[in-house]
Amino acid sequence: MPRYIKKIWSGDVYEAEEYYSRRKINKSCLRGPNENGSSAEQQERNLKYARKKLARKINANFGKGDLFLTLTHKQHVGYGEAKRQLQNFLKRLKRKRKKMGLPELKYVAVTEAEDKRAHHHLVVSGTDLTIDQWTELWGQGRIMISRLEPDGDYTGLTRYITKECPLDHSKRWSCSRNLVEPKVEVVPMKDEKPKQRLRVPKGYREVERYEYASEENGMFRYIKAIRNGGADYGEGKEQES
Questions:
Q1: CA 55, CA 73: separation in Å to the nearest integer?
Q2: Per-residue model confidence as pLDDT tens digits over 22-69
Q3: CA angle at 30 for the pair 21 and 170, rounded to the nearest 5°
Q4: How far apart are CA 207 and CA 195, in angstroms?
Q5: Residue burial 35-66, b: 16+ Cβ < 10 Å; e: rest
Q6: Do the Cβ atoms of 148 and 66 come closer than 8 Å?
Q7: Cβ(51)–Cβ(40) under 8 Å?
Q8: Is the pTM of this model over 0.90?
Q9: What is the spatial distance between Cα 17 and Cα 29, in angstroms, rounded to a whole number?
């Protein structure tokens, strides 16, 4: 099977994956049946993959000056009503930003309502508002605000805001449509020379490395590195299985 290295740049974070594939780049092939597609193990793998994609999107779009919000409801509301109130808040925030002459709002939002009062976690582009202005904009309860650390990997934050996300295929989070995608490059490996194995780019430091073998796809190797000066905020590591 062809062997590849996928390189992913997301803000201050660099990741690389070395893997075998039955399909060559830009070549299609028949997919085999997914015998465990409905199993709990497969759902857990899907959730881990979805979290990794979201972490990369947050890393690629947010950083110094941006905000982490938690919005609470003073009244008990159902999940659907909580989502409706969140959307109304985002509309008000967009209008406020427009009046202030700020760029279009960027956001990632997660609603949690499992066995507790509904609340929302958001990562949003920075807005210079007072706490009273934020409270008035929300209008449904308390709002807690903190600034993102200026540089680094926000995978730990991603795992925190998605801790209640379901294992099924229901919608786990929402994002604004103006978020940029991480830069991805896939290159074929020509031989087994050690110098072609996963390496940390100059100006980065390695924070994670692992590998595992699969009977179907052979050896998989992974590394993560953060640009010098950045930090790993929270426990961002999540081993693949």
A1: 26
A2: 655 554 433 434 444 557 777 788 888 888 999 999 999 999 899 999
A3: 85
A4: 20
A5: eeeeeeeebeeebeeebbebbbbbbbbbbeeb
A6: yes
A7: no
A8: no
A9: 21
